[in-house]
């Protein structure tokens, strides 16, 4: 059975444990890279990651963009929304359908 993980600073992710998701607090980007690799190999189909942590792990996240699993979904942390999550969704939709159907301002 596939699992769901949440990575990021403790204050941003601890509430997800009440939903039954596996939480992994990360304060060090180097540990984040190691953890992401481990989770990807350990049957995690979805990994939610705070935008702040993702900004430090861009190279590693790019390795998983073209594979089926894990899906890495960016979420805002307690420090606020940086827009990276929405930008990622926009890019994925544009790539899938060939145009911007979500945020087209026409």
From TrEMBL:
SUPFAM superfamilies: AtpF-like (SSF159468)
MF (Gene Ontology): proton-transporting ATPase activity, rotational mechanism
Pfam family, one: ATP-synt_F
Record bears the keyword Nucleus: no
Record carries keyword Ion transport: yes
Alphabetized UniProt keyword annotations: Ion transport, Transport
Family recorded in the similarity comment: Belongs to the V-ATPase F subunit family.
Name the UniProt record assigns to this protein: V-type ATP synthase subunit F
Source organism of the structure: Coprococcus eutactus
């Amino acid at each position: 059975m596939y699992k769901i993980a949440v990575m990021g600073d403790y204050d941003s992710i601890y509430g997800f444990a009440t939903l039954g998701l596996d939480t992994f607090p990360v304060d060090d980007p180097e540990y984040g890279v190691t953890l992401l690799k481990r989770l990807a190999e350990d049957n995690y189909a979805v990994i939610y990651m705070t935008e702040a942590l993702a900004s430090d792990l861009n190279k590693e996240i790019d390795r998983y963009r073209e594979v089926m699993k894990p899906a890495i979904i960016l979420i805002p942390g307690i420090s606020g929304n940086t827009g990276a999550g929405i930008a990622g969704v926009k890019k994925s939709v544009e790539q899938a359908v060939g145009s911007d159907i979500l945020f087209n301002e026409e």
